[in-house]
Amino acid sequence: MVRAYEQLAGEGYLESRGSGGTRVAVRADGRGMASDVAQETAGTGLTVSIDLTPGRPSGAPFRDRDWRAVWRKAVAEPVQVELPDALGTPVLRTAVAGHLAASRGLTVSAEDVIITAGTSDALQLIVAALRGQAGAPLVLMEDPGYPTARRVLSAAGAAVETLPVAGDGLEAAQLAALGHHPDAVLVTPSHQYPLGGRMPVRERLALLAWAEANRVLILEDDYDSEFRHRRMPLPALASLPSAAEVVLVGTFSKSLSPWLRCGYLVVRGASGQRLKAARHDLGTPVPGVMQSALANYIAGGGLARHIARARRQYAHRRELLLDRFGGRTDVQLAGLDGGLHAVIRLEPGVPAERLAEEALAQGVRVVTLASYFAERTPENGLVIGYGAPTDLQLARALDIIAGILDRMAGNPV
Questions:
Q1: Cβ atoms within 10 A of the Cβ of 334, count?
Q2: Is this model's pTM higher than 0.85 or not?
Q3: Domains with residue ranges and CATH for the chain
């Protein structure tokens, strides 16, 4: 019965309000939400009905009773006359440490946590700390990788270089073959972005050994490790025994929403002291009221309950992708072990750019795999985000994409 209600909520028919019950979802004009598809106008002037851009989670937590209760409590608290602690409020840093212990098995104290305004702020802070040590720092990234991270690092004053990677990310042998050593290496070992693989334990240990020997800072982006659909998550680099310095970059953008603009760093050692000093110089960018609400949401179990619900929703949407494309011989699916997106690799005769254009003409926005490549020859494919759309929207979008594939390949629809 619970699964049935969750499926109806995922399809847009019901709205769950936690202990407040579950109701039929209606719009302000009284019409059912399942019949309504949010629309926006793309830069091309075309109307976007269903947006499959990766990195967009469900907005469900902001409709549940848990979040509304903690937000009301935070707003009702007496207004402080001082700025929040530069490293983050003690109550939120403590809550984040407890969350990481429960979700990632990390032994973290509140003193190890720095609150940030999301990943972009975290990367800017890291560059500021590295600049103070040795001028313009050199940061190595995966290719393909997160384009926003490349832009932010460059804008913050870092020199950015990339290394080509396969689905499981960087290999220690690639780093050992470099003729020079970067100041930092940014990796996504739990779920390589966007290809979706995960770095094997032996490579994690080899990476740490290389970083320790060459005094290179490891930046571990743990962006959606809460959402594993098949295999248990491997231990974070930051939890493995090593004298290498690792900074864990975490965010609530994927587990909750980018709208919060809130995340955290887990820091230790000399690099941790430099990062704390830089944060003290710059001050916290996260409002105290937000930190209070989020701390109570985590401590009260709201975040854990939301993640459990979201994990089931995303797993169901993953099945929709597999049902629609898993049996096709003209595409290859990847990146489905976890997270909020999947990769659809296409045959050479079906250019992804053209498919994306035709999908947009029919109201579906998709992102090409090529947009994540920096220097190496891009692959032909799509990156499908399935976190934000309802089940019905996703099913409709997948039907449209499949129909375009059939026409482009000359197959009967």
A1: 18
A2: yes
A3: 37-56+307-409 (3.90.1150.10), 68-300 (3.40.640.10)
